[in-house]
């Protein structure tokens, strides 16, 4: 097992060791895993290309380390608990032994369908056990999984399938979420009609059994393919640097990019961070409420916990169904010890009133976590009082799809927890603030751009199919540093508080959405001449989407256009990217070189009218007053 940080002195000693001798520090973390062949070197790196390799020449398989290594002594321990959307339905439990068998069967079925090492398999599924089983099966045979969040539209799914050149899509028939039943297979059919030419088969898991369209050539039933498959499947021996998965995420420009993670480094770092941040002890019941469609679900529902022989809960439903006490019912039902959720869920539940938490026994909770966006002070205190009962420390964990694992977080019992501060980097993480010229800011009590100046094992290796983009986006802003895209500030003792994105990415309910993507979708509407999209503070979602549109034609049709624009965005990206506010404007504020002044649009959207600054140098300064006057 990786090093468990015991106390503050130990934490400080580890931080120092990781800087003075990173090779031996990370060797210490990696050696307890199973390697079919040991690595010959810990790290080779340079950030210019970038070219980063961890545990060189080492041969391993993350699935083997998640399952097989535990079987001999702990095969009967519970690996996975699945809680269905409908609380009156039966939950499911898988021991390590059962999960291993299910994964092997699936791996054999995939092989029988001609999936082999290096092939890409896209998952478009609700939170059912087959999703976790499916991705582990891919890892087992060396296929590269790419999970697409099941809330994305057919177009967004098709874009990702095409970019990954996936050979197979695995989906369910329907997705049951709260009272909604979403026709997942029908969306896959639509994506297949749009493009997806690389796909030879769609493997369909029967979730509800409700009617779906079927094409005999392409569509295959999951259960039929699993039938009679052996429950043993040898693992593919993978190079440490072989890709494990691709996960698409939004950036400030262009289409979403496929972040690539590897077997070796990702394995070591997710286990190390899981065990330390959550202080997981054998026998604890751990629950992360994220969806496996996002990085949090990959690293902290599936891989980190299973590598640590934990019991991990997977929840199919939503926090508000059948009512706002669902989370706390589940905590009580399974006596959850570590609970990990997003600020948006906390704010939404807080807004429902305290009566939903009252009367629930939450005393099993030892650590409660937050992820995905900055947690505001009010939500932090509510979480601390009502859920943590002033007893379970809050870990505010900062990280990204690209970092693979938690980078900055308090460590319970080791470092303190200060409201709204993610606090200190984990040992081995060299986080620095820089000013816009790239100069490092060493004084505390300052504000700057958050960078990481030394590699860590689970860092992004490339953006799939376009290495140059990886270099441009992350390694070109500041020489020799990975740039996160976030702004941050430090307090007088160096604790870090991440304020939010400084690029054109909006964080809506913890989901990353690129303004350029939304604008492209909006511009597809025939009446839209030009658009500009910005984020604004939203009480529940953290940030909402504010769209300014220049439209042609009759302004009496504004409401119709508004609804049509929302529909276009839903079709092109998915409901999560729908604008919350749409303002029609005669023009957009522009610089003399024709660039849209988003800073001004952000201030107007936030109703910070007194902070517009000097607008006199604009090409069209008079427009600012007009937009301000009609702000929503
Ligand atoms: C934001 C999610 C403040 C940040 C794991 C980052 C946070 C982006 C926090 C990554 C936090 C995540 N405090 N901001 N604790 N955690 N963020 O890739 O802006 O979906 O860059 O990964 O979320 O989002 P992603």
Could you characterize what this model shows?
By secondary structure, this protein is an alpha/beta fold. It has 18 helices and 29 strands. The strands form 9 sheets. Strands 5-4-17-16-18-19-20 form a 7-stranded mixed sheet, sandwiched between helices. A 5-stranded parallel sheet has the order 7-6-8-11-12, sandwiched between helices. Strands 21-22-23-24 form a 4-stranded antiparallel sheet. α3 runs antiparallel to α4. The chain starts with 7 loop residues before the first helix and ends with a helix. The mean pLDDT is about 95. The protein binds 5'-O-[(S)-ethoxy(hydroxy)phosphoryl]adenosine. 5'-O-[(S)-ethoxy(hydroxy)phosphoryl]adenosine (WTA) binds near residues 396, 422, 486, 498 and 500.
If you average the pLDDT, what whole number results? 97
The computed structural class is: alpha/beta
Helix content: 25-40%
Distinct ligand kinds: 5'-O-[(S)-ethoxy(hydroxy)phosphoryl]adenosine
Number of helices: 18
Major beta-sheet overview: 7 strands, mixed
Measured between the Cα atoms of the first and last residue, the distance is 54 Å
Task: Provide keyphrases for this structure.
632 residues, alpha/beta, 7-stranded mixed beta sheet, 5-stranded parallel beta sheet, 18 helices, 31% helix, globular, binds 5'-O-[(S)-ethoxy(hydroxy)phosphoryl]adenosine
Helix-strand layout with pairing:
Layout: H1 8-20, H2 22-30, E1 41-46, E2 51-56, E3 59-60, H3 62-74, E4 78-83, E5 92-95, H4 96-112, E6 120-124, H5 129-141, E7 144-147, H6 154-164, E8 168-172, E9 175-177, E10 180-182, H7 184-194, E11 201-205, E12 219-221, H8 222-226, E13 238-239, E14 243-249, E15 257-262, H9 263-277, E16 285-288, H10 295-307, E17 311-315, H11 326-334, E18 338-341, H12 343-352, E19 367-371, H13 377-387, E20 394-397, E21 431-434, E22 447-452, H14 467-475, E23 482-490, E24 496-501, E25 505-508, E26 511-514, H15 515-523, E27 528-538, E28 542-551, H16 558-572, E29 581-584, H17 598-605, H18 622-629
Parallel strand pairs: 4-17, 6-7, 6-8, 8-11, 11-12, 16-17, 16-18, 18-19, 19-20, 28-29
Antiparallel strand pairs: 1-2, 3-13, 4-5, 9-10, 14-15, 21-22, 22-23, 23-24, 25-26, 27-28
Helix pairs in contact: 1-2, 3-4, 3-10, 4-5, 6-7, 9-10, 12-13
This protein binds 5'-O-[(S)-ethoxy(hydroxy)phosphoryl]adenosine.
């Amino acid at each position: 097992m990786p090093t468990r940080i015991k106390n503050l002195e130990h934490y400080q000693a580890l931080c120092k060791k990781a800087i003075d001798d990173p090779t031996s520090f990370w060797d210490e973390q990696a050696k307890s895993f199973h390697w079919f062949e040991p690595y010959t070197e810990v790290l080779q790196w340079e950030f210019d290309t970038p070219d980063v390799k961890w545990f060189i020449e080492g041969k391993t398989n993350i699935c083997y380390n998640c399952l097989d290594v535990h079987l001999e002594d702990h095969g009967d321990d519970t690996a996975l608990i699945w809680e269905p959307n409908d609380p009156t339905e039966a939950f499911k439990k898988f021991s390590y032994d059962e999960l291993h068998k299910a994964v092997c069967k699936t791996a054999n079925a995939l092989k029988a369908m001609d999936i082999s090492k290096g092939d890409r398999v896209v998952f478009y599924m609700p939170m059912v056990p087959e999703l976790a089983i499916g991705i582990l099966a891919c890892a087992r045979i060396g296929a590269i999984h790419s999970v697409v969040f099941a809330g994305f539209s057919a177009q967004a799914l098709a874009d990702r399938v095409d970019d990954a050149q996936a050979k197979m899509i695995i989906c369910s028939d329907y997705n049951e979420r709260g009272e909604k039943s979403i026709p997942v297979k029908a969306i896959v059919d639509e994506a297949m009609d749009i493009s997806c030419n690389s796909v030879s088969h769609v493997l369909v898991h029967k979730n509800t059994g409700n009617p779906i369209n079927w094409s005999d050539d392409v569509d295959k039933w999951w259960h039929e393919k699993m039938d009679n498959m052996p429950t043993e499947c040898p693992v593919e021996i993978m190079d440490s640097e072989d890709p494990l998965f691709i996960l698409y995420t939004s950036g400030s420009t262009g289409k979403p990019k496929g972040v690539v993670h590897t077997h070796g480094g990702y394995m070591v770092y997710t286990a190390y961070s899981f065990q330390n941040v959550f202080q997981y002890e054998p026998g604890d019941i751990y629950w992360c409420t994220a969806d496996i469609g996002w990085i949090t679900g990959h690293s902290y529902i599936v891989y980190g916990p299973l590598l640590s022989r934990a019991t991990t809960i997977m929840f199919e439903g939503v926090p508000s169904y059948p009512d706002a006490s669902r989370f706390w019912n589940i905590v009580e039902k399974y006596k959850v010890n570590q609970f990990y959720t997003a600020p948006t869920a906390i704010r939404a539940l807080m807004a429902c009133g305290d009566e939903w938490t009252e009367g629930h026994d939450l005393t099993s909770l030892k650590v409660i976590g937050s992820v995905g966006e900055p947690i505001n002070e009010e939500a932090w205190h509510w979480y601390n009082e009502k859920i943590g009962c002033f007893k379970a420390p809050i870990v505010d964990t900062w990280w990204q799809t690209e970092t693979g694992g938690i980078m900055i977080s308090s460590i319970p019992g080791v470092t303190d927890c200060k409201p709204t501060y993610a606090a200190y980097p984990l040992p081995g993480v060299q986080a620095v603030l820089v000013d816009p010229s790239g100069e490092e800011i060493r004084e505390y009590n300052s504000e700057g751009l958050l960078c990481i100046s030394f590699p860590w094992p689970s860092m992004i290796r490339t953006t799939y199919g376009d290495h140059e983009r990886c270099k441009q986006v992350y390694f070109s802003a500041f020489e020799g540093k990975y740039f996160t895209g976030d702004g941050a500030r430090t307090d007088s003792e160096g604790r870090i508080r991440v304020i939010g994105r400084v690029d054109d990415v909006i964080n809506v309910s913890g989901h990353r959405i690129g303004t350029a993507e939304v604008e492209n979708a909006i511009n597809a509407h025939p009446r839209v001449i030009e658009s500009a999209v910005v984020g604004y503070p939203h009480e529940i979602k953290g940030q909402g989407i504010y769209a300014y549109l220049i439209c042609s034609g009759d302004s009496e049709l504004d409401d119709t256009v508004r609804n049509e624009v929302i529909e276009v965005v839903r079709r092109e990206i998915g409901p999560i990217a729908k604008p919350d506010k749409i303002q029609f404007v005669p023009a957009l504020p522009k610089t003399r070189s024709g660039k849209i002044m988003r800073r001004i649009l952000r201030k107007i959207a936030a109703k910070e009218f007194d902070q517009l600054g000097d607008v006199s140098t604009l090409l069209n300064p008079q427009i600012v007053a007009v937009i301000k006057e009609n702000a929503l």
